[in-house]
Amino acid sequence: MEGTPLFNFTVKSVVHDYEVQFISNTRNSLIQELKEGDFLIIDRKVNNLYSNELNNILESKKHIIIDATEKQKSFQELIPIIQFLIDNGFRKNNRLIGIGGGITQDITAFTSSIMYRGVDWLFYPTTLLAQGDSCIGSKTSINFGVFKNQIGGFYPPNKILINPGFLDSLSDAEMKSGLGEMCHYFIVASEADFKRFKQDYHQALIDKKVLAGIIARSLEIKKSYIEIDEFDRNERQVFNYGHSFGHAIESLTDYQIPHGIAVSYGMDMANFVSVKLGYLSEYTRQEIRELLKEIWHGTSINNISLDKFSQTISKDKKNVGTELRLILNKGYGKIFKDAVKNDERFISWLKEYFEKELN
C-alpha cells in the first residue's frame, strides 16, 4: 500500500481550518495520529483488504467496523453506532477516525457533528471518489428513505490523510466512478483543464503518477470554490452539475450504478438540456460526451422508467416550488444555475434522451 507523496495544503473553513496531507504509509500515520480515547470507524471491505496493517492497531484501539452501504447511511443504522460510542466511554474530548470511502466519511462526519454538539474527527479516504472529491468541502449527508443526501450539514474534519496506495485495490468500476466525479470539476474550471483531463483519462487508469496529478488538480479546483462559498449558497453550487440527474439514476437503480458513473450520465443529460435551451453548442456537447461515454461504458440505464425519473427529479432538494433548479452548461468554465419548469416540454426532452441518446 505504498503511495506517492504529493503536496500538503490547508483548506480555510468558517468552522475551523483543516489540513490535507499526502502520506505513503497508513499504519505509521495511524500510530502517530491516534490518541487515547479515539474511536476508529472502518469500512469492513478496507479492514479485510488491509488486515495485516490494521490488525495490531485495532487490537489496542476501540473501533467500529461498518458495511459501507447506502442503507447504512441512515438514521436507523446510525443508532447502533451512537449507542456503541456512548456505551464504551466516548467523550466530548475524544475523536472519531474514519477509514474508508464517501459513505464512511458521511457516517463519521455526521456522527461527529451531532455527538455532544460536535467532536473532532480525522479522515483517511480510501476510494478515488473520496480522495479526489468528497474529502474536502465540509459537507455531511445521510439518506432519508430512498432519497439520497436529504439530511446533513457542514462539519469539516480536523485533518485529512490521503494515501494514493489505497487505490491499487479498486475495481475498474470504482476507478471510473472516481474519474467520472472528478470530471465535472475540470469542465467547471476551463477548456484547458477539461482537455488535459480527457487526454490523461486512459493513462490515469494505469499510471498512479498521472492519476495523482488529476487528484491534486481536482482538489485545487474544489478548494478555490469552497473557500469563497463553503456553505454552498452561491458560487459552489455549480458543483452540482450532473448531480440532480445523477442522484435520480442512483436511487432508481438501487445504487447499482456507481455514483461517479451516474454523474457522468447526469452531465450528459444536463448538456442535452443546455443544447435544447440554446445555451450550449452540439459540438461542445459531443466533445464532452466522447469522454463521458468512455466513463459509463459497460453500464446501462435503459430500464429506468421515465415517469419515475421525472418524479424523482421533482423531489431534488435544490428545487424551489415546482421549478427545477438545474446546473446547466454554456461552455467550458461557464457552468451556471438555471430555473427550468418541470413541464411537458421538459418531460418530452427526457423522453427523447432516454429513447434516442442511450443507444
Quick structural gist:
The protein has 359 residues and is α/β, with parallel strands linked by helices. Helix content is 48%, strand content 17%.
Your description of this structure?
The chain has 14 helices and 11 strands. 48% of the residues lie in helices and 17% in strands. It has 359 residues and is an alpha/beta fold. The chain has a 7-stranded mixed β-sheet with strand order 1-2-9-6-5-3-4, with helices on both faces. Strands 7-8 form a two-stranded antiparallel sheet. Strand 1 (9-11) and strand 2 form a beta hairpin. The protein is globular and about 60 Å long. Residues 1-5 have low confidence and may be disordered. The protein folds into 2 domains: 9-169, Rossmann fold; 172-356, Up-down Bundle (Dehydroquinate synthase-like, alpha domain), CATH 1.20.1090.10.
Keywords:
single chain; 359 residues; alpha/beta; Rossmann fold; Dehydroquinate synthase-like, alpha domain; two-stranded antiparallel sheet; 14 helices; 11 strands; 17% strand; disordered N terminus
Helices and strands, with pairings:
Elements: E1 9-11, E2 18-22, H1 26-33, E3 39-43, H2 44-49, H3 51-60, E4 62-66, H4 75-87, E5 96-100, H5 102-114, E6 121-125, H6 128-134, E7 139-144, E8 147-154, E9 159-162, H7 172-189, H8 191-204, H9 208-226, H10 243-252, H11 259-276, H12 282-296, H13 306-314, E10 323-329, E11 335-341, H14 344-356
Parallel strand pairs: 2-9, 3-4, 3-5, 5-6, 6-9
Antiparallel strand pairs: 1-2, 7-8, 10-11
Helix pairs in contact: 6-7, 6-9, 7-8, 7-9, 7-11, 8-9, 10-11, 10-13, 11-12, 11-14
